[in-house]
Amino acid sequence: MKTQVGIIGAGPAGLILAQLLQLQGIDSVILERKSRNNIEGTVKAGILEQTTIDILREIGVGSRMDREGHFHNGNYFQFNGQRRHIDLKKYSGGKQVVVYPQHEAIIDLVNARYENGKDIIFDVEDVTLHEIDTNQPKIRYCKNGLDEELVCDFIAGCDGFHGPSRHAIPENIRKEHLHFYPFGWLGILSDSAPAADELIYSNHDQGFALLSTRTPTLQRHYLQVDPYDDIANWSDDRIWSELTARTKTNDGWQVPDGPITSKGIFQMRSFVCETMQYGRLFIAGDAAHTVPPTGAKGLNLAATDVKVMSRGITEYYQKGSTYILDRYSEICLRRVWKAERFSYFMTRLLHTNPNYDSFERGVQLAELDYYTSSEAGLRTIAENYVGLPIEWEK
Ligand code: FAD
Ligand code: DHB
């Protein structure tokens, strides 16, 4: 089989890229390890920033998000039992974020792909990349027990942190930066009322908590826990008692509770792979970088990476120019490092670090006070949270 762009992975990066290319008349084939049900049902991200909202609208998959998503003009930071509002819209020149679950965006993107008359090859196994430094790179895979080969002009590695694409870049060319945190997140879904009109990021001596939402009757909340803790240690009562203690305010407000319908613990890390390209292979999203979730940036970075990639590939086919493609990694990494910085900053600002001494804890509280009260502080949180622009030129 032959195509112009072979896309590995039907996550946000792969599916948005396919749609961006389709709008320019560029053919692609998507190979996905999991089933359609699996990718459409996995609960992950919740917050889409303005740049991602704009991209989804541009590629014609924004209508359900516009109808059913919850658009927020701000969020709350809480510490010492006080809640402070961050007016994201005011301090970012009118931008917003939307609470629209990742798996709903995936459903919209998969539907759009089929509406275009195009397919996604699900349940593939043993994906390997070949001859990526030639003009005809190849992807080999196994489907229904049969070995297949896809010959491409370009390969887009959109296969997440554990996928094979990044590893196809020779080790002596790749520089990887990995940072672990002494924190994990326990995430729940609960049948309960929304905590507030906007998200609450709460710092507390017992640990960080985040109160988010999905629908008026389904909430998504997170608790900072030991990254190696076992979910079996967390009864529903213990989860609600910690969420309540870490988010209650001095005026007696308490988070509404209800039956917990799902719960799980995950670790967090920061990771950047320099470079994001080699020959005819371009990697995007979690395949190239990951962030701790505190800044809500992972999916959003995936969307902007593939925006850059699609423009580069389009210029190649329409003008014969490789100007953008040659600088793909440089353009993406400039923005990626800024989102990494923001996610690292938010994580350190909001979590309770078991290794901090009382001086460091005092500085952390002063930082929370400063960033939520000074105009400069509010502006820097707002412009990063809603998403920085892509800088095409140096
Ligand atoms: P993925 O979503 O990982 O997709 C990669 C795809 O490639 C998968 O479908 C996978 O099955 C497939 N694949 C892997 N290996 C192979 C192979 N060998 N062959 C074929 N296919 C393969 N981000 C935000 O922006 N905002 C948030 O609010 C936010 N909250 C989050 C909350 C949680 C709890 C978590 C876990 C993440 C959150 N994120 C958030 C991050 C976001 O979910 C990820 O950054 C995003 O999924 C990355 O998209 P991707 O397409 O790069 O990778
Ligand atoms: C959600 C996840 C995040 O990482 C975040 O910072 C805000 C909200 C969510 O899943 O709703």
TrEMBL record:
Keywords carried by this UniProt record: FAD, Flavoprotein, Monooxygenase, Oxidoreductase
Domain FAD-binding intervals: 2-343
Entry's Gene Ontology molecular function annotations: 4-hydroxybenzoate 3-monooxygenase activity; FAD binding
Cited InterPro entries: FAD-bd (IPR002938), FAD/NAD-bd_sf (IPR036188), RIFMO-like (IPR050641)
EC numbers: 1.14.13.2
SUPFAM superfamilies (UniProt xref): FAD-linked reductases, C-terminal domain, FAD/NAD(P)-binding domain
Pfam families, sorted: FAD_binding_3 (PF01494)
Record flagged with keyword Flavoprotein: yes
Domain of life per record: Bacteria
Class in the EC hierarchy, top level: oxidoreductase
NCBIfam families named among the record's database cross-references: PRK08243.1
Full protein name: 4-hydroxybenzoate 3-monooxygenase
